[in-house]
Design a protein that fits this description.
The structure is a single chain. This protein starts with a strand and ends with a strand. Mean pLDDT is about 90; it is low at about 130-145. Strands 13, 14, 16, 17, 19, 21, 23, 24 and 26 form a 9-stranded mixed β-sheet that branches. The protein has a 5-stranded parallel β-sheet with strand order 12-15-18-20-22, with no helix packed on it. Strands 3-5-7-9 form a 4-stranded parallel β-sheet, with no helix packed on it. It has strands spanning about 5, 25-30, 35, 50, 60, 75, 80-85, 95-100, 105, 120, 160, 175, 180-185, 190-195, 205, 210, 215-220, 245, 250-255, 265-270, 275, 290, 300, 320-325, 335-340, 345, 360-365, 380-385, 390, 400-405, 410, 425-430, 435, 450. It is built from no helices and 34 strands. The chain is mostly beta strands.
Length: about 450
C-alpha cells in the first residue's frame, strides 16, 4: 500500500484526483516547483498525518485536502495566495493553522468541521481584521483585506497576529476544577456529570472522592444521546482538553462520556477497578493516541472507540469478555492486535476498515462477520486455539498471502476472503468444512487449495 508521497523537484502540475482515496498514505511532501494543487488531489487520504507545503505554492484547489482526518497541522507557505472551497474540510485532527500575510482569498468552508483547530497564526496585523474576535465565533463586519469569509475556523481558535509559526506547546498541568458531580441513585457515590470547557484546561485529573464519597463513574448513567455527555466535544466543550487521568475509584465510563473530544490525546486509567466502557464513550476522539486498558476491564460497548483515527496501539487485558459491535471501527492507525481467549462475546465489524492493521493474533476466538472487513494492510494472521467458524466478509479485501485454517473450523461464510488479491494458498485442516461458494471469490492469485486430514 502507498504510505508516502514525495514529489520530485521539477514537477509543475498534478491532475485532479491524483491521489484521491489513498487511504494508507501517511505523509506528503510537495516540491517548490509545484505552484498549484488541483481539486480533490489528496481528498480522502484519511490516514495522512503530515503534509509539507514548500515555498512556491500559489494556489490550492477546491476539496484538495478534504477529509484528511489524521492531519495534525496545516502549515501553509507564505507564497500561497488562494485556498479553494472546502480545501481542508473535515481535517478533524489539525491543531493549528498558519496563514501568510499575502494570502488573498480563502474559499467558502475551506476549514469546515476542522474542529480541533485551536490556534491560527496569521502573518497580517490585527488592524487588518475587524471580523475575528479571539475565537468567540460571533459574526462581525468583515474587513475585505482579511481573507477568511466565514466562521468555520474561528469558533474556538485563538488568533496570533503577525506570527508565522506556533510556539512550543506548554506542558500540560492537571486540575480538578470545572468538574460537575451528581449523586448516583444509591446515594453512596458520585459520577462526573459535566465539565466547564470555558476554562480551556488541557489536562484534567478526576479526583477519587467528592464530598467524602467515592467518584465511581464518568458520564450520565442514563445518557441516550451525546447531548448530555460529560465531556462532549465539538460545539459544546472540550476542544482544548488533551489529557485525562481516571482514578482507581471509577468502575464505569458511561455512554458518550468523552464523545467528540477532538483534541484528547491521552487517557490514563489508574488501578484495576474499571469494569466497563460504554457506547461511543470515546467515539470521534480523532487525536486519541494512547489509552491503557486495565486488568479488570470486562466489557467494551458498541462504537466505544469508533473513529479514533490516531490510536496506533491497544492492548486488551485477559479479563475482557465482551468486545461489542464496531468497537474499533475506522481506527485507521492501528497496526497490530492480539485478542485474548477470555473474550466470549465478540461483535460484528469490531475492526472494520482499520486500514493500517497488519498483524492479528486470535486466541480461541470465533471469527465474526465483517470482523476485519477492508483491513487493506492485514498480511499476518495467527490463529491459536480452536475457533469453529469464519464469518461472512470477515477478511474481505485484506492483504493475506496464505492462510492455514485449523481443523476446528466447520464453516466459512460467504465472501469471507473475497478480493484478497494477494492470497496464493489456502490450507484446510478439516476435510469436511462447509465452505461457502463465494468465500474465495475474486482471489485472482489463488493457485493452491489443500485439504489435509
Amino acid at each position: 500500500a502507498l504510505t508516502e508521497v514525495k514529489l520530485n523537484e521539477g514537477l509543475t502540475s498534478l491532475g485532479e484526483y491524483s491521489f484521491y482515496e489513498c487511504v494508507c498514505l501517511k505523509s506528503i511532501t510537495l516540491p517548490t516547483s509545484l505552484q498549484s494543487v488541483p481539486s480533490y488531489a489528496f481528498s480522502y487520504c484519511i490516514t495522512c498525518k503530515s503534509i509539507i507545503f514548500n515555498e512556491g505554492l500559489i494556489s490550492i484547489g477546491d476539496y484538495a485536502f478534504s477529509n484528511c482526518l489524521a492531519l495534525t497541522s496545516i502549515d501553509l507557505p507564505s507564497s500561497l495566495i488562494s485556498v479553494g472551497e472546502y480545501a481542508f474540510n473535515s481535517c478533524h485532527s489539525a491543531k493549528y493553522l498558519v496563514l501568510g500575510k499575502d494570502i488573498q482569498s480563502i474559499g467558502q468552508h475551506a476549514f469546515l468541521e476542522s474542529y480541533s483547530l485551536t490556534d491560527i497564526y496569521y502573518g497580517g496585523s490585527q488592524s487588518n481584521n475587524t471580523y475575528l474576535d479571539e475565537g468567540d465565533g460571533r459574526e462581525k463586519e468583515k474587513d475585505p483585506n482579511f481573507p477568511v469569509d466565514d466562521r468555520d475556523i474561528i469558533q474556538y481558535a485563538e488568533i496570533h497576529y503577525e506570527s508565522s509559526s506556533p510556539s512550543e506547546s506548554p506542558s500540560i498541568t492537571y486540575s480538578s476544577e470545572g468538574l460537575e458531580y451528581k449523586l448516583n441513585s444509591d446515594g453512596t457515590s458520585y459520577y462526573v456529570s459535566g465539565f466547564d470547557a470555558a476554562l480551556k484546561q488541557r489536562g484534567i485529573e478526576i479526583p477519587a472522592t467528592y464530598n467524602d464519597l467515592p467518584v465511581t463513574a464518568i458520564g450520565n448513567p442514563n445518557a441516550i444521546t451525546y447531548s448530555n455527555a460529560a465531556f462532549r466535544g465539538s460545539t459544546s466543550s472540550c476542544n482544548y482538553l488533551e489529557s485525562v487521568i481516571i482514578p482507581e475509584s471509577v468502575t464505569t465510563i458511561n455512554d458518550y462520556a468523552f464523545y467528540q473530544c477532538y483534541s484528547l490525546k491521552e487517557v490514563k486509567i489508574s488501578g484495576s477497578s474499571l469494569q466497563s466502557i460504554g457506547q461511543m464513550a470515546f467515539a470521534n476522539c480523532y487525536s486519541l493516541k494512547s489509552i491503557n486498558l486495565n486488568d479488570g476491564l470486562e466489557s467494551i460497548a458498541t462504537d466505544a472507540f469508533q473513529y479514533c483515527i490516531s490510536l496506533d496501539n491497544i492492548s486488551f487485558p485477559a479479563s475482557l469478555t465482551t468486545l461489542s459491535l464496531r468497537a474499533f471501527q475506522y481506527c485507521f492507525s492501528l497496526t497490530s492486535i492480539t485478542l485474548p481467549s477470555s473474550i466470549t462475546d465478540l461483535g460484528l465489524r469490531v475492526f472494520d476498515s482499520c486500514y493500517s492493521l497488519k498483524s492479528v493474533t486470535l486466541n480461541n476466538n470465533d471469527i465474526t462477520n465483517y470482523l476485519f472487513y477492508k483491513c487493506y494492510s492485514l498480511s499476518e494472521l495467527i490463529i491459536v486455539g480452536a475457533p469453529t467458524s469464519i464469518g461472512i466478509n470477515s477478511f474481505y479485501n485484506t492483504a493475506l498471502e496464505s492462510i492455514s485454517i485449523p481443523s476446528s473450523v466447520t464453516s466459512i461464510g460467504g465472501e469471507a476472503f473475497r478480493y484478497c488479491y494477494r492470497l496464493t494458498s489456502v490450507s484446510l485442516l478439516n476435510t469436511s468444512v462447509d465452505v461457502s461458494d463465494s468465500a474465495f471469490n475474486d482471489c485472482y492469485a489463488l493457485t493452491s487449495t489443500t485439504y489435509r486430514s
